């Protein structure tokens, strides 16, 4: 597995296009891998775009094989300095142990199922959670099945906050698609390293093709 980070230059026309279209960004990330790259590999390519302070913005990718992001650099990156960096991720994943605590960041698509009013009983559809409280509850409800717990913070509430929320709207196959996203930051404690490794490499929740589901960890105090 590999974890890659690529600074984006938001002043470039290509960057504006990629940042405004999750479909275009997904296609750009997928093009970083040769056809058939994932056939014999576990996991999938996950990506997320993070704001890094006032002017910085970066693309993160976790993938079973090392990506070649040259074409993304040509469209939307910086032509000087370190254009992107990929590090081997398997050693870090293998070192996860129960009881460890890490800072985490996750952009997700928190949804719940509702019954369709015009369909037979049992036919449901996913509907986005709209409030911060419901979005936090969505993640807390899934933590145990994902191999981690979120401990209490200094105020005896879960060490978890929603730092950004947005709605993605685009057309796909002639249909309008709307995806509600929430970006979480907080502290997690490893409970089941095997389950957590799977989530770190396969993603959490829906809309993984559109920049959701990638959890990244960092030592506490670094963010």
From TrEMBL:
SMART domains the record matches: CRISPR_assoc (SM01101)
InterPro entries documented for this protein: CRISPR-assoc_prot_Cse3
Matches recorded under Pfam families: CRISPR_assoc (PF08798)
Official protein name in the record: Type I-E CRISPR-associated protein Cas6/Cse3/CasE
Organism listed in the record: Rhodococcus sovatensis
Lineage, top ranks: Bacteria, Bacillati, Actinomycetota, Actinomycetes, Mycobacteriales
């Amino acid at each position: 597995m590999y974890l890659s980070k690529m600074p984006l230059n938001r002043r470039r026309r290509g960057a504006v296009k990629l940042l405004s279209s999750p479909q275009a960004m997904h296609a750009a990330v997928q093009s970083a891998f040769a056809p058939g790259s994932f056939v014999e590999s576990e996991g999938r390519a996950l990506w997320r775009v993070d704001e890094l302070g006032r002017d910085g913005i970066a693309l993160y990718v976790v993938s079973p094989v090392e990506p070649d992001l040259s074409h993304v650099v040509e469209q939307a990156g910086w032509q000087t300095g370190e254009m992107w960096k990929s590090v081997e991720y398997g050693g870090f994943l293998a070192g996860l142990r129960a009881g460890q605590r890490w800072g985490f960041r996750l952009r997700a698509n928190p949804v719940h199922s509702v019954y369709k009013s015009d369909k037979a009983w049992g036919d449901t559809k996913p509907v986005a959670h709209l409030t911060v409280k419901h979005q936090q509850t969505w993640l807390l409800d899934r933590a145990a099945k994902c191999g981690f717990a979120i401990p209490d913070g200094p105020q005896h509430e879960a060490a978890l906050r929603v730092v950004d929320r947005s709605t993605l709207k685009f057309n796909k196959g002639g249909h309008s698609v709307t995806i509600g996203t929430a970006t979480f930051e907080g502290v997690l404690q490893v409970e089941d390293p095997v389950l957590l490794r799977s989530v770190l490499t396969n993603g959490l929740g829906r809309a993984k093709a559109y920049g959701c589901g990638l959890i990244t960890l960092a030592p506490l105090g670094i963010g």
